[in-house]
């Protein structure tokens, strides 16, 4: 199992940090967990193409977690030319209508899909890519999931736990994959010390947690319960006894030399496991960091 951080940023435009996206590879399954702006470009940089992706999981439908899904979905359908299975999509309630309103027969992209299915020029390209006529409308397999649900795959299962974010306007959850080789838990967007995320992350080999802003600078207490900060994140990792903590979803405010080191020092007083300052395209070791030998 392999975890690559595609986007470790926020909604703030950044060339350094794409918005939220993670790549989880296990055997033949290539999963994208969230796909915010910029993270599709990172997927290509990670050596994968849309046609390689088998599953998409959404933590919630804030645009910084799903706007690049349009690119992934259309590119996969177009380049896949009927040669690959339909995409499996798992997300919170609202995901089905989100997908339908984009790619359904009355959806925003229906005229594009219709043109690509019917225009002779597009049909020619489809056949040149190995497609067999008639070209079919995309039929993604969408499953809406809630905290407590379990999705089983080939040698893995993904569970969901309640995040503390912007409910009830958007359903928001974290997710965790367990396989023989280990476990990865992702908080989604979650602030404070969310009991649902602590429970979900219990004993995980890797906990990837939102770490949006500097502790103590939150404008209000409600904001604190919506967006993760280092002190609360350290308490989540400690209570869950996660084996490795990866920080993500970081504002420029905390992403500064000197500030970073200070934050890590504060967190280490609470959580005694290793902490990784996440960067786009970083590959995270599942079984814990290993020291390289000196030659
Ligand atoms: Zn969010």
Q: Would you count the extended β strands for me?
A: 14
Strands side by side in the biggest sheet = 6-5-4-3-2-1-14
For the terminal residues, how far apart are their CA atoms?
28 Å
Instruction: List cofactors, ions and other ligands.
Output: zinc ion
User: What's the overall average pLDDT, rounded?
Assistant: 96
CATH topology: Metallo-beta-lactamase, Chain A
Tell me the Rg in angstroms: 20 Å
CATH homologous superfamily identity = Ribonuclease Z/Hydroxyacylglutathione hydrolase-like
Largest sheet composition:
7 strands, mixed
Shape: globular
CATH top level is: Alpha Beta
Order of helices and strands: EEEHEHHEHHHEEEEEHEHHEHEE
Proportion of residues in extended strands: 15-25%
Number of helices: 10
CATH hierarchy: architecture: 4-Layer Sandwich
Indicate the percent of residues in helices.
25-40%
Q: What is the domain total for the residues?
A: 1
Q: What class do helices, strands and sheet pairing give?
A: alpha/beta
Query: Uncertain segments of ≥5 residues (pLDDT<50)?
Result: none
Please characterize this protein's 3D structure.
It is a single chain. The chain has helices at 39-45, 63-66, 69-80, 95-103, 110-118, 120-128, 195-200, 221-226, 230-240, 259-268; strands at 2-7, 21-26, 29-35, 55-57, 88-91, 141-144, 150-152, 156-162, 173-179, 182-186, 206-210, 245-248, 275-277, 283-284. The longest helix has 12 residues, at 69-80. It has ten helices and 14 strands. A hairpin with a 2-residue loop joins strand 9 and strand 10. It has 295 residues and is of the alpha/beta class. Helix 5 packs across helix 6 (120-128) and helix 9 (230-240) runs parallel beside helix 10 (259-268). It is globular and about 65 Å long. Helix content is 28%, strand content 22%. The model has no long low-confidence stretch (mean pLDDT 96). The chain has one domain (2-284): Ribonuclease Z/Hydroxyacylglutathione hydrolase-like (Metallo-beta-lactamase, Chain A, 4-Layer Sandwich). The strands form two sheets. A seven-stranded mixed β-sheet has the order 6-5-4-3-2-1-14. It has a seven-stranded mixed β-sheet with strand order 7-8-9-10-11-12-13. Residues 60, 62, 165, 189 line the site of zinc ion.
């Amino acid at each position: 199992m392999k975890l690559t951080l595609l986007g470790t940023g926020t909604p703030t435009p950044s060339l350094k940090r794409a918005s939220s996206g993670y790549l989880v590879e296990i055997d033949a399954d290539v999963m994208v967990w969230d796909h915010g702006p910029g993270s599709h470009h990172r997927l290509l940089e990670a050596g994968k193409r849309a046609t390689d992706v088998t599953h998409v999981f959404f933590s919630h439908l804030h645009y910084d977690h799903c706007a690049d899904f349009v690119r992934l979905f259309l590119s996969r359908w177009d380049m896949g030319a009927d040669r690959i299975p339909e995409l499996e999509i798992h997300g919170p309630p609202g995901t089905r209508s989100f997908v339908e309103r984009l790619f359904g027969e009355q959806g925003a992209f229906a005229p594009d899909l219709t043109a690509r299915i019917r225009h002779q020029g597009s049909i020619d390209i489809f056949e040149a890519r190995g497609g067999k006529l008639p070209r079919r409308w995309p039929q993604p397999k969408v499953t809406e999931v809630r905290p407590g649900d379990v999705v089983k795959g080939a040698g893995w299962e993904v569970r969901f736990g309640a995040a503390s974010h912007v409910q009830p306007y958007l359903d928001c959850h974290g997710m965790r994959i367990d396989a023989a080789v280990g476990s990865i838990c992702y908080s989604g967007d979650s602030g404070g010390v969310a009991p649902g995320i602590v429970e979900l992350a219990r004993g995980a080999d890797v906990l990837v947690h939102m770490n949006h802003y500097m502790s103590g600078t939150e404008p209000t207490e409600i904001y604190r319960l919506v967006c993760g900060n280092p002190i609360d994140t350290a308490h989540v990792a400690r209570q869950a006894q996660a084996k490795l903590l990866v920080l993500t979803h970081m504002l420029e405010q905390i992403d500064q030399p000197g500030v970073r080191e200070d934050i890590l020092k504060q967190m280490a007083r609470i959580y005694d496991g290793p902490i990784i300052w996440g960067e786009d395209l970083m590959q995270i070791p599942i079984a814990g960091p290993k020291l390289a030998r000196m030659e």
